[in-house]
Amino acid sequence: MEARTIRILRGGQLVSLTNVPPDRTLLEVLREDLGCTGTKEGCGEGDCGACTVVVAEADGDKLAFRAINSCIRLAHSVDGMALWTVEDLAEADGTLHPAQEAMVQCHGSQCGFCTPGFVMSLFGMYQNHTSRGKAVTRELAQEELSGNLCRCTGYRPILDAAQKMAELPPVRVDEAGIARALNELALKRENLPATGAYLLPKSLDELLFLRARHPDAQLVAGCTDVGLWVTKMHRQFDRVLDVTQVRELRRIEDYEHHIAIGAAVTLTDAFEALVAGRPQLKVFANRFAGLPVRNSGTLGGNVANGSPIGDSMPLLIALGAHVVLLGATGHREMPIEQFYTGYRQNVLRPDEVLAWVKVPKPRVGELLRAYKISKRYDDDISAVCLAINLAVEGGVVRSVSIGAGGVAATPVRAVQTEAALLGQAWTLKAAQRATEALRAEFQPISDMRASAQYRAEVLGNLMQRFWLESQGQQHINLEDFRLEESAA
């Protein structure tokens, strides 16, 4: 089968890679084919950040930079992008980039294994903030380094380095020149048909044609789950169909009553759109994995994957979101909770793709909270996820929708608990009844993250927290903690 040529820009120079299998990861290509051994493999599942690199796409005459995990990113998915590894940052005379020099001056490295990944996350931060004249606060540094783990330093000197970068002599990337080169590369590839073992269509029509022609191809939309199948389960794919460069699905469209988020929109951008309308979701969004995972993964991919411990689905259920499915025979639309038929199973037909997620805009009087319970606060998978969206009018619950994750084989809607609340006065007694109803509604399993009893107990506890917050209680959870307050 014909292998697609991968073309990327490194240091402004075109690099072409041929005969790359469709399931080969970017990390394998970097280390084994290009000799970029500064990029490390730690966990092989996008958790530790040792493999972090930075990619960029043209955004007008500038670049949009994203730090990503190369260990779970399929190599072909970065075709047509600019790429930086830790080897690309220092000047030819050995002068270090501010991201590197700051780590040296702040003593941010000890054993050094994680250091290249941290440096690349700092480089992404430098390009997106420092080089644009934006201050890197302690809180921002903590948020954007959440996908990088270190066993040695305690993080304080690395956070110092993030802020130190602005004090060092500036280094400029020729964004306009690289953007022009990327646009020229895109023009050359625009009329080339998507063929071979890795299919990377550019338009929706082309995607639907290829989906109908190759129904057995593995769909990917960011690779953060499929990449795990490759690295941990040693899965191999004869053909891959990647939706992430389909222009129509990379947009977020604003309508009178809802926003439509394309299936190829990254989790970073999707959550930014959701937070713009509902600022209370910011902490929840930041706790969805680490930034490199959110920069690669897509909302459409997370929804279609359908993991019962995926955090976006309970939230979308509570928001009343619908999914739009497109295929050769037309389109279908349904509430997101009706999309799932079993564990990682859904109603998609062989010729269909999930194209958009439609999210209603906030209603007047909406009280929304989303809770994530996990063993580790940052960069961890939920044991329980609960999202509650309730509207009270005249002291009475006029509407309610509750989404839950980690308590069943699929993300689920708590319909029995909703029924117990709807039309009732919003009082402590009503909240207590809802607590018991929520604990009784599901039969969760026991696994490595939590026992069934713990999950049921936590569900009820979160309903009690929701009641307290609805009454104005504050400072009752870790979300109210601010890093600056602990500085000594």
User: Major sheet, described briefly?
Assistant: 5 strands, antiparallel
- Could you report the average pLDDT, rounded to the nearest whole number? 94
Structural class: alpha+beta
Oligomer description: single chain
Q: Separation of termini? A: 61 Å
Number of helices: 16
Spans of at least 5 consecutive residues whose pLDDT stays below 50 are none
Tally of individual domains: 3
CATH topology of the largest domain, by name, is: Uridine Diphospho-n-acetylenolpyruvylglucosamine Reductase, domain 3
Kindly describe this structure:
- By secondary structure, this protein is of the alpha+beta class.
- The protein folds into 3 domains: 6-167, Roll (Ubiquitin-like (UB roll)), CATH 3.10.20; 198-360, Uridine Diphospho-n-acetylenolpyruvylglucosamine Reductase, domain 3, CATH 3.30.465.10; 367-478, Enolase-like, domain 1 (2-Layer Sandwich), CATH 3.30.390.50.
- It has helices spanning 26-33, 98-105, 115-128, 138-144, 156-164, 175-190, 204-213, 226-233, 267-277, 282-286, 291-296, 299-305, 312-318, 415-421, 428-441, 452-470; strands spanning 6-10, 13-17, 52-59, 62-69, 82-84, 198-199, 218-220, 240-242, 252-254, 258-262, 322-327, 330-335, 340-342, 345-346, 353-360, 366-373, 384-393, 396-405, 412-413.
- Strands 9-10-15-11-12 form a 5-stranded antiparallel sheet. It has a 4-stranded antiparallel sheet with strand order 16-17-18-19. Strands 4-3-5 form a 3-stranded antiparallel sheet.
- Helix 2 packs across helix 3 (115-128), helix 2 crosses helix 5 and helix 15 (428-441) packs antiparallel against helix 16.
- The mean pLDDT is 94.
